[in-house]
Amino acid sequence: MTIATPFSVAIVAISALALLGLPIGHAMIAGSILYLFLAGLDMGTAAEQLLNGLYSNYIILAVPLFILAAELMNIGSMTERLLRFCNAVVGRFRGGLALVNVVQSVIFAGMSGSAIADAAGTGRMMQVMMTADGKYRASYAAALTAATAVIGPIIPPSIPMVLYALVSDASIGYLFLAGVVPGLLMALSQMAIVIIGARRENFPVEPPVPLRSLPGITWRAFPTLMMPVVLLGGIYSGATTPTEAAAIAAAYALLISAGLYRSVRFRDFYRSVLESARTSASIGMLIAGALVFNYVVTVENIPDTIKGLLTAWNLSPLGFLVLVNLLLLLLGCLLEGTTILLIIIPVLIPTAKALGIDMVHFGVIVVVNIMLGLITPPYGLLLFVMTRIAGTPVRAIVRDVTPFLCAMVVALALITLFPDLVLWLPRLLGYQG
């Protein structure tokens, strides 16, 4: 038996190209073509898999549309009005601005579907508000913003859930519903850490907003607060598909920002479209590379091999989910979340199905794990985003984000142990799983 099989050579090639700085999507395409060449297969199959995968999956269109919607919200005054509303509701308590950070992420999560968009949009404003006059340490504000941004793709809409649906054939609508309770559970765990820290570190109390001002603040923020209703109402009423709802969300964000609030200049609009295109292109290339490489994995029969190996271990469904959690938390320290979702998860899905694990429950567990990877050193992308925004060292942010990470791991354990926390809402609306 030779070690230098076509598959092993392809893996080495992908790893080497990625380490040399080639984008991982390009590296996977190059490695897959090399595999086809060494295995004596038609190299044109790579193009066939790529084109069939991208052009036959209508749902992929939702990804750039959700990204565009988030960008359009950030250039207008929608996020600013949202923060005023959140401050009026919870800002009066000790550590109020920190609680505002959590609440605004829960609301913004129902609009963008992207953790990075959350951190770069409302998160940037929260960083300024929390550090003004030395109210909070810059590293604490950055850590909290990174932690709260994790909620974004768990509460619907969610770009990672769209990608999970792509590789698992699970219902996007039910996946979105299943993320609501886990997302709120994550938010509660973060608020608990904030409240404990507020007492220990004597965080400041913000001047309370007079109750008589609350109706006016709510009214001015009302069009922004209605965006999740428009988005999710269209999906769950059956009026729109998730992709069509994403297009409506982008149009609604532009209409409110430019038409109602009149806070968008053409230069800002152009920049947001350009940034959305860049982000979408990078994700698109990663999806393309994953589609081609997944064909290689299928030819090599890797999913069935792993399924047989795990079956031989005689794992229970819970034991398998614990193993998946440990594996994904470890991989989250090293790999980008979309790579894990498109490459690793398709290998695990056959085993999950064989053990009778619900694909919606499994999808939420996967997405939560991947989101935690965004704040897990050394690769946590949100840590680096907040380092640039806050201008503080990564090690300081890691120190302050650790309590939030531990609290969210506890929440992950709860949704793993108790599937009904995830499946209750989908079943309430007709899910048969």
What does this protein structure show overall?
With 433 residues, this protein is mainly α. It has one domain. Helices cover 76% and strands 0% of the residues. The chain is built from 23 helices and no strands. The chain is globular, with a radius of gyration of 22 Å.
Short description:
The protein has 433 residues and is mainly α.
List keywords for this structure.
76% helix; 433 residues; mainly alpha
How would you summarize the topology of this molecule?
Elements: H1 6-19, H2 24-38, H3 44-56, H4 62-75, H5 78-90, H6 96-109, H7 115-120, H8 122-131, H9 138-149, H10 159-168, H11 172-178, H12 180-201, H13 214-225, H14 227-236, H15 242-260, H16 266-299, H17 302-312, H18 317-332, H19 337-354, H20 359-373, H21 381-390, H22 394-417, H23 420-428
Helix pairs in contact: 1-2, 2-16, 3-16, 4-15, 4-16, 5-6, 5-13, 6-8, 6-9, 6-12, 8-9, 9-21, 9-22, 10-19, 10-20, 11-23, 12-22, 14-15, 16-19, 17-19, 18-19, 18-20, 19-20, 20-22
Structural Rg: 22 Å
Largest sheet: none
Q: What pattern of helices and strands is seen along the backbone? A: HHHHHHHHHHHHHHHHHHHHHHH
Question: Uncertain regions: pLDDT < 50 for 5+ in a row?
Answer: none
